[in-house]
Specification:
Elements lengths: L2 H8 L7 E4 L6 E3 L4 E4 L2 E4 L9 E12 L10 E4 L2 E4 L5 E7 L2 E9 L6 E7 L6 E6 L6 E6 L4 E3 L2 E3 L5 E3 L5 E2 L2 E10 L3 H6 L5 E3 L5 E16 L5 E3 L3 E5 L9 E8 L4 E10 L5 E5 L3 E8 L5 E6 L11 E6 L4 E4 L7 E6 L6 E6 L4 E4 L11 E4 L1
Parallel strand pairs: 5-11, 18-23, 26-32
Antiparallel strand pairs: 1-32, 2-3, 3-4, 5-8, 6-7, 6-9, 9-10, 12-17, 13-14, 14-21, 15-16, 15-20, 17-19, 18-19, 19-25, 21-24, 22-23, 22-25, 23-24, 26-29, 27-28, 27-30, 30-31
Length: 375
């Protein structure tokens, strides 16, 4: 029996479920120390480390091109302040690093869209991760002079905007390259490509779950490919948005250091269905709507063919335009995931220990707001 088949069959245990009344809600609040409290438990969003955090854990993985499925060399992989580059076949390994329950990991290479994932790093396991990056070939590019401004395609920048080097803060005048990349999160590929989790810090400082309709990546670079900051907001146009006709939807930017979305601004829908909004800086932005009702909860266990619990397995629940996850099953193989209420969803699993995953082959029934479905 191959690994994929084994893990797929292990999903069967989650099909036999009973309905339980939820105890308390799924409310959460953001704390000043960089964490948030959900159902009474403090959860660390992620920390920015200037130096590598050492420990006894190991993390390894493989990064491939999403178009060719071939390994990518020299990808910069960063987690917990530790950085390594992939080898000629796209493999990497970090040894003697700190174990973290919620570790932001980023992947960065010129010519590819920077991306991020959230993983659990446990001791005494390989903590393996397979990941794919989208090449710039799927991006649209525009070039203009800093004193001209830009009014083309999806981006509008005033001719009075002042540009500064993101690293040094020095003013820049000259040729500027803009890169635009947009994905429809109502498609399975776009949904799975959204960085981080489908939740973020709203304008009131509260952690909320959301559904997403699209996300875009905007990059501004000088002639030497150095990232640039801007002195005034730029306007973006999000076209071909499906799944909603709401007139106003929040905009969120992705904080790669903490691996969390942050609400900042709104986008307005025009008569042609295009959403217009202002953003304060280049980066990754999503058009996403908070889930207003209380989330449902799905619980289950993963066991092997000998009915022994499987630990360190990541479980994801996937709806049409949302994903939630339990980063790691516990010592009993148990997991618990929040789900958007009244929507069917699927489950997928990834075994950090062996580095393989599987998708449960059928959709699971919708869970009502505030209900818990458990084994």
């Amino acid at each position: 029996m191959n690994k994929y088949t084994t893990l797929t069959k292990l999903f069967i245990i989650g099909l036999i479920a009973t309905l339980i009344t939820a105890c308390g809600g799924s409310s959460s609040s953001y704390n000043a120390n960089g964490s948030y409290t959900a159902d009474g438990e403090e959860i660390i969003l992620g920390s920015t480390y200037e130096t590598c955090q050492y420990g006894s854990a190991t993390h390894e993985g493989h990064v491939v091109d999403s178009k060719t499925n071939k390994g990518i060399n020299n990808v910069e992989v960063s987690v917990s302040g530790c950085t390594v580059e992939t080898d000629s076949k796209g493999f990497y390994k970090l040894s003697n690093i700190k174990s973290v329950k919620r570790a932001p990991i980023t992947f960065n290479k010129d010519g590819y869209y920077k991306n991020s994932e959230i993983i659990a790093i446990e001791e005494e396991t390989n903590n393996h991760l397979a990941y794919s990056l989208d090449p710039y070939a799927s991006w649209s590019k525009s070039t203009f002079s800093s004193n001209e401004g830009l009014e083309k395609d999806n981006i509008r920048i005033s001719d009075t905007t002042v540009y500064t080097n993101k690293e040094t803060g020095e003013k820049y005048k000259g040729k500027i390259n803009t890169y635009w990349y947009q994905k429809d999160t109502n498609s399975a590929k776009g949904r799975d490509a959204l960085p981080g989790n489908y939740q973020g810090i709203d304008s009131n400082g509260i952690i909320v779950n959301f559904v997403s309709y699209t996300f875009a990546v905007v990059e501004l670079k000088d002639k030497d490919n150095n990232p640039l900051n801007i002195s005034a907001p730029m306007t973006i146009q999000l076209k071909n948005v499906s799944g909603t006709t709401d007139q106003v939807i929040p905009l969120w930017y992705y904080d790669y250091d903490r691996a969390v979305w942050v609400e900042k601004g709104m986008a307005q829908r025009d008569e042609e269905g295009i959403y217009h909004g202002q953003i304060s800086h280049a980066g990754t932005w999503s058009l996403s709507k908070p889930v207003e009702s209380e989330m449902g909860i799905y619980q289950g266990r993963i066991v092997n063919e000998n009915d022994q619990p499987m630990t360190n397995v990541r479980i994801k629940a996937k709806g049409k335009n949302w994903v939630t996850q339990d980063l790691s099953t516990d010592e009993n193989g148990a997991f618990s995931v929040y789900v958007v209420p009244n929507e069917k969803f699927s489950l997928s699993a990834y075994d950090y220990n062996e580095g393989y995953g599987a998708n449960f082959p059928v959709m699971l029934s919708a869970i009502q707001s505030g209900d818990v479905v458990a084994e």
